[in-house]
Structure formats: C-alpha cells, structure tokens
Amino acid sequence: MTPSKDSYEVIIVGGGVSGLSAAKTLADSGIQDVLVLEREQTCGGVPRHISNTGFGLVEFHRPMPGPEYARRMRHRIGGVELATGFQVTKLLPQGTLETAGPQGVVTLQAKRIILSTGTFESGRHNRLVSGARPFGVMTYGELARYVHFAKMRPFKRAVIVGTEWVSFAAIHTLRKNGVEPVCMLGEYSRTIAPEIIALAHEKIFRTHTYRGVCLSSILGANRVEGVEVEREGKTQVIPCDGVVFTGKFRPESHLVRRSHLDFDPFSGGPVTDQHQRLSDPTYFACGNVLRPVEPSWTCFREGVKAALFVKMSLADTLPAITGSVPVRFLDPVRFVWPQRLAFPLQPEQKLSLMVSLRRPTRGILRLKVDGRDAWIKPINAMPEQLIKIIPKKLTLDRAEDIEIFCDET
What integer is the mean pLDDT of 109-130? Predict the structure, then answer.
C-alpha cells in the first residue's frame, strides 16, 4: 500500500506496539493527518508470532496470546492511514524521509516524525560463537516464526542460551510444540531473571540451568549435533539438535546510525531528552528503539507519551532542546536513558530515568544534580535489567551537572 500523498502532519516509522499506540493517541487528540509506515506486510510487531498469553493485561484488561493482542492493536487505530511493505531508507533533516515501496523510491515530509522501529535479539554472530553453520541455530524470535507461521518443528532437543525473562518464555514455546528443552546456559553466577523463576522451571519442567558457563562452539556440519561449553576451565559437550539464542536485545537503530541524528553507542539507540525528542526536534522516538528491552505494556505507554509530546511540540509548548544538559555516568553503569534533560523541568511531568549495568553489581546507586544527591537506592542488579530512577523532589529551572554512579560494595 502506497501513501496517499507526500506530506503529513505526523509520520510514524514502525507499526509495532509503540507505533500503533502513538497513532491511536494522536488520532484521539485531534491530529488526524497521520501516516504509519511498516516494512512488513502486517502491523503488530513481535507479538504477532508469540503465542504465550503474556499480553494485553494493561492495555485491554485481560491476558491474551500475542497474535490476538496484535490484531486488537491494529483494530484500535481505526482510520489512521497505514502503508505496509514500505521501507524507510534514510532519515533527513527537517522531517524528510526517503522510503522505498512497491512503486519505487518515494520522499515523504512531515512536521514531526516518531521512530518506533523496535528491537532485535543478538544471535550467534553477535556473540562470537565459533563452529560451522549447521541448521538448527536461531533466535527466539526466529523460533516463534517457525512454529507460529510455518507450523514447523525445527528440532527435537534444544539448548537455550540466556537466562532472561524471554529465555523462560522459550522453554514454554518449545514444550508447547513438542520440543524438549535440554538445558539453559547462563554466563553469570546467577540468572538475569529472578532465581526463583529458574528454580521453579528446574523443579517443574526438569530444565536445568548451567550458571557461569561460556558457550564456546556449536558442533555439527549440516545439522546441530551439540554444543561445547566451558566452565571453570573445564570443557563439556552437551548433545542437542537445536540452539536457541535468547535476550541480549539491541535497538533496531541502523537508520539513526546513518543519519544526522545523535546516536548513543552505549544504549544502541538515539539520544533523546525526557520528552522522547531527538537531537533534531522534528524527530521523536518510543518503545524499544530507545534502549533494550521493555515489555509490551511499557512500549504501549511510551507510544502514548510520545504522541502527547509531539502534540505539545506542534503547539510549541516543550522546553527548547538547546536548553538540555547531558546526563553523565560512571562504570559500572552501561547506559542511562534519557541521555539529556531539557530545562526548565515541567512540574506536571514525573521525571524518570532508566539505568543498565555492565556486570552484576551490588552497591548504592546515586543520582547527583549539581553535586547534591537527588536520588539514592541500594541495588543488587544484573546486566540486561533496567533500574528506574524517579527523583521525587527535582524541580529546577536549570542544572549545570547531572551524574549517575554506583558505590559498589
């Protein structure tokens, strides 16, 4: 489907949860001249092929499987114009997009653009795992597409790499489709998801979790025959015919990397202020393109917030982006989002920041503004987890220095 014209008030790049949520909010707030661009043939994002019933509780007040949730999200946007099978190829200044679709290259213009391109899992090549390239190695997203769309069972006995929430979802997907989860492999001494979840799965489903191991090689020529792992200097071979890489999500931000927009190499997403506004004030972003990784209900809410910020921007009621201050951080903090705060802070907006760590960390996490503590919290956190900072008494017209660091114990 090709856009009906070449200029809109708002264009949303990405028709996943956050993009559809933003489109619905814009339409409800009176901004009708909106276009949603989606590169796939159907909107709905990742939930379209996740059969687990972990969606919809916040948005629709009842749990539902991913495909049903995606259908309801699509239905909500009503008459908002939607162009599927349309790929954005370049982000240009002043709200200009280069796109490619069935009719060829098209240049589109908008007063404001919302990026909601989502996230992807790190596969084998991102984790530098050696070995040949046999069939049976995939990410959880690829596994879900196999079993949901193709109705295929790609293997019989699979090893799951990772111990995040999505890793345990992979156990349920495998078992539901007749595949035995052999074990889970975690690189740290404890799981990233709460240990009680791993212990429950070990007891109920007999799926053992190997902690503190390194996956060094995948064995097999044409098909997977096993994996080789290292633990405390010893090597072990685990027989299997499938390997599912889970977690270690990364924002789908290649468009930002190649554009004029400021890019944050630590989060892997665009640099924004607390209004989800990018370095070019015609651009905003929402959902998992901002940082890895949030559940569907958080993406839904961020889509709502992005739409409301866009409406304020069009009305010229947001603080100027030139009045923003970078948020500094020190190791072991891996990244912080938003990366900048725009002043003056609006008293009606509850300010929050998200922090991720490089390694397992125990200590006191601090937010300092102009040398004074604005927020303090004891933490015992794992990498890939997000820690929320909500400074309750931060109402400033201006700050000179903002810093986040951890006193490790």
Answer: 94
